[in-house]
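P.,

For your records, the input lines for the assembly:
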Amino acid sequence: MDFSVFFQPAFSGGGTYLDWVLSGIQWTLLVSILGWVIAFTVGSVLGVLRTTQRVVLRAPATLYVEVFRNVPLLVQMFIWYFVLPEIVPRALGDWMKTQMPMPEFWNAVLCLGFYTASRVAEQVRSGIQSIPRGQTYAGLAMGLTQPQVYRHVLLPMGYRIIIPPLTSEFLTIFKNSSVALTIGVLELTAQARQISEYTFRTFEVFTVATVVYVLITLTVTVAMRALEGKVRVPGYLGPAGR
Amino acid sequence: MIAIKNVSKWYGEFKVLAGCTTQIEKGEVVVVCGPSGSGKSTLIKCVNGLEPFQEGEILVDGISVGGRKTDLPKLRSRVGMVFQHFELFPHMKVLENLTLAQVKVLGRTPEAAIEKGLRLLERVDLSAHKDKFPGNLSGGQQQRVAIARALCMDPIAMLFDEPTSALDPEMINEVLDVMVELAQEGMTMMVVTHEMGFARKVAHRVIFMDSGRIVEDAPKEEFFGTPRSERAQLFLSKILQH
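Structure tokens returned:
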């Protein structure tokens, strides 16, 4: 094993292969974190809609979830990048093909975000539905409106309840971001493949990539644990006496 | 104050309320009792519109609860409700539970809401617990907080839905004491309970329900003297023999 390969001058770009790795890490983080912002926001709205009494709100949210969670991520990636520009209005399609800045990057972000949103939505729904009906009654009985009940009663508890599965989802988006390499985003896995092709140091290169992924996800895990402890409700959730 | 006229309600095919009619005057304390499944909890939840009903009419202070144009949140904010399982919001401190609706529904300033909340906590003898979370209080304490929370809204009437049924025997009295005090101050109260001692002490009238029907609606003395219906006699003989 020879890790000195990372300090050799790279085939192109003027830096070392370490610079390629660092650049890959940067794109992995950018795609994942921006994707997560979309996933969390859209997923929360959809999750809430799926718990409402009104069919006109619930049905579209259900349709969304069933479509986005049942089509393979890889297929969705291709649809965003190759198919979408062909089926949107002509002018928009042309703009996407010729003038859109960093089209691979933004399509990857949107794809990951909207795909993960369907999974976040289901978790938000399960969190809300695990709260006893009496809590909603209590909120309504004191004169809060339905949206206020969600804002002040259901969501604060619902989010706390789903922190553990939500952590898994957050970790998954970092790992799923590697699928973006299929449409040309030079994220960590893509860079690792590229370096291994130029240097034939496959073992070393993928060892480093693996370690980096694990470091990223462990950091997220620790951060989410800390969050879980910070928002824990005394006398209610989580292991007793902690 | 509260007029219930011919109210019927179905869950699918099953008739839970069958033509219930009664009236509660200002300052009157009415106890509703009956075997489980008789519809008493459903009836009280209809009074502030937490449960919809298909037939009949309920007027609270002259306003129709089921009316299309009725501002339900506003009407509910004027009627306090206390639940079997307390339904305090577990993620909020005791004082926050008391101020939430005052600020969000009545538009009071946080300072005014806190002042009012502290005064009512004092009244239920729980000032020392204002910064605790509900999960750290005993059942009896939680229910007293819940009563204080409802009183913060300056209600014109109070609804109690089996307020002592979920409590350990030793805590029942501390809650009943608060309720007796309220009754003696002239609060209009509708109380679903099996506490016949409470009924004897402060109720003006007792309503007995069975299979969704109001079987007996009599002044206290008459009800405990000789109920007219056999069903009520049987019920009383079962719960009063000890």
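Two observations worth noting. Confidence is low (pLDDT under 50) at residues 238-242 of chain A. Chain A has one domain: 3-241.

Regards
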